[in-house]
Design goal:
Layout lengths: L1 H25 L2 H10 L13 H26 L5 H32 L2 H4 L7 H24 L5 H33 L12 H27 L8
Helix pairs in contact: 1-3, 3-4, 4-6, 6-7
Length: about 240
């Protein structure tokens, strides 16, 4: 039902926001400690952090684009058995990749500008490693964008699809390295030093593992159901 789909989407948005809130808050250990001492309930929000909103949107748009790419590849795999549906899935998935990715370029610039000045300067040349990670990731992302825009009209879409998938994986690797540079810069700015040993909390770890296994089982089940179904494209 449509209502269930919208409710699920809202839940996913809430989960993504909470993750972004928690991850951005860990980069401000001084603020984190003060709010924890004020209340240990774990309900502290990081709404006054100017990097929270672009960070959340950047991750969200990236997830939507990746899902669009997956739909396009699925359509490519169904092209021979069901040309009508395959062509629809390719175009629909590609659209959902291109539009969020184009918007994400602007959101990424917003995130960069919102960083504290000394952290932002790491990507402006103060740290060659950080500048290289950001530059390579940006170029590979633009290359993936161009490849996905071209492959719709290509006579050999499978080849371009494989290349686009490879450049996207490399883009994600470069952006992960760039995000780690943000983490290091923010923690250094706060004067935080990583301890050699942290006492693990096995209770939350066990809960996380159980929920992870359950979620993976649900995803596999949905993928099996989707693979057995024979969807039809909507009427023009």
């Amino acid at each position: 039902p449509v209502a269930v789909s919208w409710i699920s989407a809202v839940f996913f948005l809430a989960i993504a926001f909470l993750y972004s809130n928690n991850m951005s808050l860990t980069l401000r250990p001084d603020v984190f400690a003060a709010r924890y001492l004020k209340s240990g309930a774990g309900l502290a929000l990081n709404l006054d952090d100017p990097t929270l909103y672009p960070r959340f949107l950047h991750m969200l748009l990236g997830a939507v684009a990746l899902a669009g790419l997956a739909v396009a590849h699925y359509g490519l795999s169904r092209l021979r058995r069901d040309p009508e549906f395959g062509d629809w899935a390719i175009r629909h998935g590609t659209l959902w990749f291109l539009v969020p990715t184009a918007i994400n370029v602007l959101v990424g610039i917003w995130w960069l500008i919102a960083l504290p000045r000394e952290v932002m300067l790491r990507f402006m040349g103060r740290s060659p490693y950080a500048a290289a990670a950001l530059g390579i990731g940006s170029l590979l992302g633009l290359a993936t964008l161009v490849l996905m825009a071209v492959w719709i009209y290509s006579t050999r879409p499978a080849r371009l699809a494989r290349i686009a998938g490879a450049t996207l994986v490399l883009t994600l690797v470069a952006m992960i390295l760039a995000r780690d540079e943000i983490r290091q810069g923010m923690l250094e700015r706060a004067g935080f030093r990583i301890n050699d040993w942290v006492e693990p909390q096995w209770g939350p770890i066990a809960i996380f593992i159980v929920l992870l296994v359950a979620s993976l089982a649900a995803v596999v089940w949905m993928a099996v159901i989707l693979g057995r179904s024979r969807p039809t494209p909507p009427p023009p």
